[in-house]
Design brief:
Rossmann fold, 2 domains, five-stranded parallel β-sheet, 13 helices
Length: about 400
């Protein structure tokens, strides 16, 4: 399967922040994803990182000055501005943002930003007071109004010793934002997608719970694919092992009941609902308020059925609203999935094999089938979850 940046031409602008060293990781991940990357280092950036590092990573000459002698004329700034699919400025200092906002063109990067018609993505990195300053905020709003995009900054301890907004957001979030911008298929533009994700934890006492092995990877990839296709995305997430996409709105819950209440609050406004969470079927009747102590005797638990969130969606859905469920089974997968599809009044169900060698829980792959009412199951065999999410949303778009 091709990487997320396959055959894309990306200009990586690196400006004079102490976070410039992180641009090496960003460049490496872009290249790993299939991109052709040209790194551009401003004069100030070269005080923190050198061109040789980027040349080793990208296999291309790094641009360091406006009037340097270039061995290859095709990286002249107007030519590259025309063929670039994305300009990514990471890290972007207050100075570089100000120059872009006011059309100042005094070096290679700022000049080329005026010439390009490609999407421009800024990842700010600066002192928290510089970021919060009215001038910086006005410059950011000016650029957003012109169609530029921003990811971050993050919050935390800064190099100057202060704590607050201004940190370069982690590279995975930057790469996700680039991935979203570069996706040409925007068939979900204007749609609202609501997804449940992760596991649920049903408390036995203050320190123990009943749960399952769901990692949240499927929910994360569904959210990212929906964002790539132009949707606004909300994820109601139980405990998970992976972070959700930066651009998704996230509501964190623990129990099935909490997940249901969060879904109820947001279901009516969703165009597409996907129940990808692995919700515990049962909860403890009366969780203990204090930790159970081992006394050598058997412990008997009384369990009560949890609410069925996918079934709630099937009952409540309005005309034109799409509901998608998941069936995770150890045996008789298709039979159980067809039963759930009909019983829960869903528009589609994704059947996953769990248990054994090809278990979907915690894996990057899934043995999957897609089922829709009145149609034979579509077998996808063992498929990467990233590819599976694309197939799911292709089917959803067709239903819409």
């Amino acid at each position: 399967m091709a990487g997320p940046f396959a055959d894309k031409e990306i200009v990586l602008g690196v400006t004079g922040s102490i976070a410039a060293y992180k641009a090496c990781e960003i460049a490496s991940r872009l290249v790993e994803g299939g991109a052709r990357v040209t790194a551009v280092l401003t004069k100030n950036a070269q005080q923190f990182v050198g061109p040789a590092s980027f040349e080793a990573i990208t296999g291309r000459r790094t641009i360091t000055g406006m009037f340097e002698r270039l061995e290859t004329p095709e990286i002249e700034h107007i030519s590259l501005a025309r063929r670039a699919n994305l300009f990514l400025i990471a890290p972007a200092t207050a100075n570089s943002i100000a120059k872009a906002a006011h059309g100042i063109a005094d070096d290679w990067l700022s000049t080329t930003l005026l010439a390009t018609r490609a999407p421009v993505l800024f990842a700010p990195a600066m002192n928290t007071h510089m970021y919060q300053h009215a001038a910086t905020q006005a410059n950011i709003q000016t650029l957003k109004a012109r169609g530029c995009y921003f990811v971050g900054p993050g919050s935390g301890a800064l190099a100057c010793g202060e704590i607050g907004e201004g940190r370069l957001i982690d590279p995975p979030a930057i790469l996700e934002a680039a991935n979203i911008l570069l996706c040409e298929k925007k068939d979900l533009a204007g749609k609202k997608v609501l997804i449940t994700s992760g596991a649920t934890h049903e408390p036995l006492d203050p320190v123990r719970f009943i749960g399952n092995r769901s990692s949240g990877k499927m929910g994360r990839m569904l959210a990212l694919e929906a964002l790539r296709r132009g949707a606004s995305v909300t994820v109601v997430s139980g405990p998970a092992h992976v972070p959700l996409p930066y651009d998704a709105a996230v509501i964190n819950v623990k129990t099935a009941q909490e997940m249901l209440e969060a879904v109820k609050e947001r279901f009516a406004e969703a165009d597409i609902f996907i129940a990808a969470a692995a919700v515990a079927d049962y909860r403890i009747d009366n969780p203990a308020e204090e930790k159970h102590k081992r006394n050598g005797e058997a412990l008997t638990l009384s369990l009560t059925p949890n609410p069925d969130i996918a079934a709630y969606a099937g009952i409540q859905k309005r005309p034109g609203q799409i509901t998608v469920g998941f069936a995770a089974e150890t045996h008789d997968l298709i039979a159980y999935a067809e039963e759930k599809l009909a019983k829960k009044n869903l528009d589609m169900i994704v059947a996953n094999q769990v248990g054994g060698e090809n278990c979907a829980f915690g894996s990057d792959t899934a043995w999957a089938w897609l089922l829709t009412p009145g149609n034979p199951p579509e077998q996808l065999h063992l498929i990467a979850k990233e590819e599976l999410t694309g197939r799911i949303f292709d089917a959803v778009a067709a239903l819409l």
